[in-house]
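C-alpha cells for chain A. Residues wanted.
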C-alpha cells in the first residue's frame, strides 16, 4: 500500500452473539496494492451499491432460502422455522447468506463467533456512505480499511472487498486460532491481494501505523471494530445466568472475543487515545457498540477532546437487536446528515451539529428554472473560492475561506475599495472554512432547496450561510 496524506435496556442476544476479538491476524509479508478505478468501475460501483443497499431491510424468508440452498434446507425445521439455539443451524444460515448474496465461502471452528450477516453488512453499508459523503471525490476511490479484531470469519474485510472493487483491508487479531481460520477464508475467496492479515499482541497499539508493522501498513483511511462487550469473564457468566429465558441465538464465542478490561467503552477509549496522536493520518475512526449508554459516554469524551466532526448511527435487526456505531474525524470533510445524525429526539443531546438545513419549500408547480437561476445569481454575487453547478443533479458545490455574505465582510471590502488598502484575515488564502452543497429536490407535491454542510468546523458559519440563502430565496415561495 502506498503512503498518502489526505486533504432503554440493551438487548445482548443476536444471531451470532455480541462481539468480535479484542485486537489483531496472522502475519503476511505481502502488501496490498489497489488500482485506481476506471470509469467503467465507477459505474459498476453504482450498480453494486444499488444491489446491496436494501439487502436485509425485510425479515429473512427461510423457506425461500431453503429452496435455493439444500444445506440450509437440511437445518430448517417444520413450518419454515430455524432453531437459533442450535449452533449448526446458525452457522449454516451465515454460510447460506454469504454464498447467495455475496458469492463468498466461509469456514469456521465451533468455538469462535459465528457472525450475523445482516448486522455485519449494515456496518459496511454505513461505512460506504460515511466515506462517500465525506469526500468531494465520486464513490469508488481507493480506500484501505483497518478491521481491528477481525475474528475467525474475517467477515468485514470479506464483505467490504466484495462490495467495493477499490477497497482493501488490513485485518488484525491477537488470537492465533481465529487468525488461522481468517487466513483460510481469505484464501478460499481469492482475496489475498486485497486483505492483509496481521497478528498483534495485546499490548500493541490497535492501529499499526507507527510500530513494527508500519512498513506493511502505510495507509489507513478508516478503522472499524466490534469490541468485546463484557468487562470480565464473571460479568459474561452472570449475564448468561441472569436471563429470564434462553438467549435468542446460540453463542459460540471464546472469552478472547467477548471480554476485555473495561468492556467496549475502555476499548474504544483506547482507540480514541491513539487517534489523538495519529489525527489526520486516518480519516475516520469508527466502532460498533452494544450499549446506548456507551455511545453517550464516548461522545462526551469526543467533545472533551475538542472533536466536533463525528457521526452516530443505529443498526436495528429484527424486533429485538439494536446496535450503534460511532465514528469521528479530525478532518474538515463532513458526512451527510442521514449518515451522521439520528432523527429521534432522545439522541438530540449527543448528536453532532446539524448538517442539512432547508432554505425553501414550495409547491412543485413553480418552474425549476427560476429557482436555479436565483441560486446561480446569489452564488455569483459572492467572492467564493469556488462554485460549480451540476445541472443534471440540480445541485451546486461551493467553498469559501471567509463569511463573504455578512455585513461585516461587505463593509470591510468597501473600506478597502475606498482606501485602496488590503486588510488581511486570519484565515490562510488557501484554507477553506466552509464547504457546502445547495441542492434542489423536486417531489410530487413540493420542491425544496436544502444546504448541506460538506466541509469546515464552524457550525455558526454554516448556519449563517443557510440563513443568508434562505433570505435570498424567500420571495420565491
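Reply:
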Amino acid at each position: 500500500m502506498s503512503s498518502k496524506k489526505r486533504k432503554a435496556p440493551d438487548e445482548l442476544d443476536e444471531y451470532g452473539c455480541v462481539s468480535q476479538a479484542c485486537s489483531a491476524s496472522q502475519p503476511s509479508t505481502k502488501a496490498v496494492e489497489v488500482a485506481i478505478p476506471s470509469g467503467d468501475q465507477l459505474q459498476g460501483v453504482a450498480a453494486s451499491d444499488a444491489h446491496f443497499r436494501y439487502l436485509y431491510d425485510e425479515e429473512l424468508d427461510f423457506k425461500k432460502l431453503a429452496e435455493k440452498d439444500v444445506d440450509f434446507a437440511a437445518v430448517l425445521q417444520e413450518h419454515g422455522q430455524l432453531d437459533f439455539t442450535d449452533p449448526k443451524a446458525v452457522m449454516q444460515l451465515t454460510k447460506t447468506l454469504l454464498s447467495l448474496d455475496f458469492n463468498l465461502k466461509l469456514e469456521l471452528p465451533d468455538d469462535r463467533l459465528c457472525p450475523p450477516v445482516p448486522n455485519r453488512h449494515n456496518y459496511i453499508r454505513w461505512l460506504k456512505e460515511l466515506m462517500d459523503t465525506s469526500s468531494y471525490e465520486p464513490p469508488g476511490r481507493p480506500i484501505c480499511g483497518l478491521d481491528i479484531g477481525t475474528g475467525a470469519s474475517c467477515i468485514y474485510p470479506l464483505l467490504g472487498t466484495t462490495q467495493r472493487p477499490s477497497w482493501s483491508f488490513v485485518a488484525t487479531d491477537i488470537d492465533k486460532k481465529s487468525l488461522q481460520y481468517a487466513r483460510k477464508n481469505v484464501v478460499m475467496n481469492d482475496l489475498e491481494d486485497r486483505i492483509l492479515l496481521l497478528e498483534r499482541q495485546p499490548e500493541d497499539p490497535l492501529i499499526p501505523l507507527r510500530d513494527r508493522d508500519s512498513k506493511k501498513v502505510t495507509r489507513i483511511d478508516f478503522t472499524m471494530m466490534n469490541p468485546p462487550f463484557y468487562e470480565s469473564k464473571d460479568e459474561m457468566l452472570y449475564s448468561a445466568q441472569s436471563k429470564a429465558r434462553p438467549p435468542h441465538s446460540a453463542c459460540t464465542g471464546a472469552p478472547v472475543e467477548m471480554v476485555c478490561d473495561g468492556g467496549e467503552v475502555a476499548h474504544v477509549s483506547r482507540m480514541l487515545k491513539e487517534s489523538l496522536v495519529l489525527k489526520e493520518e486516518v480519516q475516520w475512526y469508527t466502532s460498533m457498540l452494544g450499549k446506548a449508554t456507551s455511545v453517550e459516554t464516548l461522545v462526551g469524551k469526543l467533545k472533551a477532546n475538542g472533536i466536533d466532526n463525528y457521526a452516530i448511527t443505529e443498526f436495528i435487526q429484527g424486533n429485538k437487536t439494536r446496535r450503534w456505531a460511532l465514528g469521528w474525524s479530525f478532518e474538515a470533510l463532513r458526512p451527510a446528515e442521514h449518515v451522521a445524525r439520528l432523527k429521534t429526539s432522545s439522541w438530540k443531546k449527543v448528536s453532532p451539529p446539524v448538517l442539512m438545513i432547508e432554505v425553501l419549500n414550495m409547491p412543485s408547480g413553480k418552474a425549476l428554472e427560476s429557482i436555479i437561476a436565483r441560486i446561480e445569481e446569489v452564488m455569483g454575487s459572492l467572492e467564493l473560492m469556488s462554485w460549480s453547478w451540476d445541472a443534471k443533479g440540480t445541485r451546486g458545490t461551493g467553498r469559501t475561506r471567509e463569511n463573504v455574505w455578512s455585513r461585516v465582510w461587505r463593509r470591510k471590502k468597501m473600506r478597502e475599495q475606498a482606501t485602496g488598502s488590503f486588510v488581511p484575515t486570519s484565515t490562510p488564502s488557501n484554507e477553506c472554512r466552509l464547504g457546502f452543497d445547495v441542492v434542489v429536490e423536486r417531489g410530487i407535491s413540493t420542491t425544496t432547496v436544502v444546504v448541506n454542510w460538506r466541509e469546515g468546523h464552524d457550525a455558526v458559519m454554516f448556519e449563517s450561510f443557510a440563513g443568508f440563502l434562505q433570505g435570498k430565496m424567500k420571495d420565491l415561495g
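Residues 39-347 form a domain with the Rossmann fold fold (CATH 3.40.50.150). The CA atoms of residues 120 and 156 lie 7 Å apart.
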